[in-house]
Design a protein that fits this description.
mainly alpha, disordered C terminus, globular, 129 residues, single chain, 5 helices, 0% strand
Amino acid sequence: MKLKGLLEVVSSSAEFKVIPIYWHEDVVLPWTYDHVAIKLDHPDFNAPYFKLFLLLQAHFSWIQLPADLTADQVLVLEKVLNLLSACVDVMLSNAWLNALGAMDLSQMWTFEFFVINTPNPKEKSSSAL
C-alpha cells in the first residue's frame, strides 16, 4: 500500500467521522489542498475524511494552518499513531510486504512529533539567567 492509500485508510476511519467542517473552511481547505503533495481523484471539501486527509499532509509538510484547523490537527495527531500501528499489525499478520509503507508513515509521525515537542538546546531558559 502506498502513502496515498495509507492516508486514505486512516482518513476514512470511524474515529474521525466527528471532525466538524466550519463555515470558513470552504476557503482554507482548497488553499491547503493546492499546497499538499498527494492529491485525490475526487476531492470533497465538505467531507470530514477529506479534511483529515489534508490535516495529516499539512502536518508532514509543515504547512501553517489557522488556529481552529490547528486545534483539529492536534486532536487528529493524538489518535493517528494508534491507527497507524493497527495498520502495521494487520498488514504484517496478513504477510503483506507493503507493511513497510505503514511503518514509514508511523515513523514520520513519531519523528515530526519529537522534533516539534523538543526544546531548542540553544535557547537559554529563564532559570539559567
